[in-house]
Amino acid sequence: MTAKTFKSLLNDIRKRSFEPIYFLEGEEPYFIDRIADELEKTVLTESEKSFNLQILYGRDIKLIDVVSSARRFPMMAEYQLIIVREAQHIRKFDELLPYLENPVPSTVLVFLYKGKKINKSAKVGRELKKYGLLTTKVLYDREISSWMNSHISTLGLTVEPQALQLLVQNAGTNLHQIAGELDKIKANMEGRTEITLDDVSRHTGLDKEYNIFELTRSLGEKNRTKTLRIVKHFAANPKDNPFVLVLSNIYNYFRKVHLVHFSKTVNQGELASVLGLNPYFVPEYLNAARRYSAMEMTQVFKVIHEFDLRSKGMGGGHSDENELLTELVVRIMK
User: Fold this and answer.
1) What is the 8-class DSSP label of residue 139?
2) With contact defined as beta carbons under 8 Å apart, do 81 and 110 qualify?
3) Which three-class secondary structure state does DSSP give residue 138?
4) Contact 255, 262 (CB under 8 A)
5) Taking burial as the number of CB atoms within 10 A of a residue's CB, which of 136, 159, 313, 334 is the most buried?
6) Under the phi-then-psi rule, with left for phi > 0, alpha for psi from -120 to 50, and beta for the rest, what region is 297?
7) Could you tell me the pTM of the whole model?
8) Separation between Cα atoms, residue 4 and residue 129, nearest integer Å
């Protein structure tokens, strides 16, 4: 049985090709909730929901009662929809086996099993694989940009690469929150279809000139004047730019520059894949690699390590974050 993906399930639901059973499990609640919301929106019309929609909670019910409800037939509708939220609190999932072996085609039964995974080697787990089984995982930081770009596309929008970069900086990893922010941006675009840097700056309050990406870019250019101007802005807004986060971003930036030096390709498309970047940004890293030789990169990483220790009160020297950041960037650009 081919494993179900979020996209394949979503597409089938929108085509009204429903599974009799959906088991939505795992660590990322966004994908679980999106499938459940789409089913609630699609399976029944508003007038059909009065008699044919049941929302149950795993803390409050027994599985045998869920099965009993699932065996009923819809009233004046093609389907009935049963959504079991908090299904991770249900015990004795073996009681579902008889129904799994012979589900009612006119019932769409949905389990939201958040934060856990069913045992796939047990008989229940093996049977669930025949239906709408979706296992979700939390996205890594490096995957957020790709997911966000894909989600923007589903909204019928495009996004400027620099605007996407600024969105990623502000996003964190809460997909529900990110989706909500993108909805708000779309609502204020007045019919335009491309999210610009100005849209993001206006909505998030992030300064399009004074942010971590502009700082790393100016460091890569060895532009001392611009770099120190951004650092001065960071010093005036320390809560928005904690040293540990800035240092982490500087390290990640130069790690990519280092990869350019040791990459076996000069093709920008291939380099984009190696660096995990939008191809739009590859020339920036190529230029930085020209300004920082491979030998200089060794010194850059020594400096970053030194300042990481100093920020933690080790390695001697002062630990004032604003002074540390100023000294750090000056040392890097030497």
Assistant:
1) P
2) yes
3) coil
4) no
5) 159
6) alpha
7) 0.76
8) 9
Residues whose CB is less than 8 angstroms from the CB of residue 146 and which lie 6 or more positions away in sequence, other chains included: none
How distant, in Å, are the alpha carbons of 17, 158, 161, 183 from that of 152?
Answer: 25, 6, 12, 9
Closest CA to 253 of 154, 147, 332: 332
The one-letter amino acid at 295: M
CA atoms of 118 and 160, how far apart (whole Å): 41
Q: Per-residue pLDDT tens for 295-330? A: 999 999 999 999 999 888 886 665 688 889 999 999
- At 88, which amino acid appears? Q
Q: Give yes or no for a contact between 1 and 130, defined as CB atoms under 8 angstroms apart.
A: yes
3-state class of 167 per DSSP?
helix
Confirm if 52 and 80 have CB atoms less than 8 A apart.
yes
Residue type at position 65:
D
Cα atoms in the 13 Å half-sphere on the side-chain side of 10: 11
Helix-strand-coil split of the chain, %, nearest 5? 60, 10, 30
CA–centroid distance for 13 within its chain: 22
Tracing tokens 């399930």 back to the chain, one arrives at 9
Structural domains in the chain? 6-136 (3.40.50.300), 141-204 (1.10.8.60), 212-333 (1.20.272.10)
Kindly indicate the confidence band of residue 1, based on its pLDDT and cuts at 50, 70 and 90: very low
Instruction: Quick: pLDDT tens for 111-127.
Output: 999 999 999 889 999 99
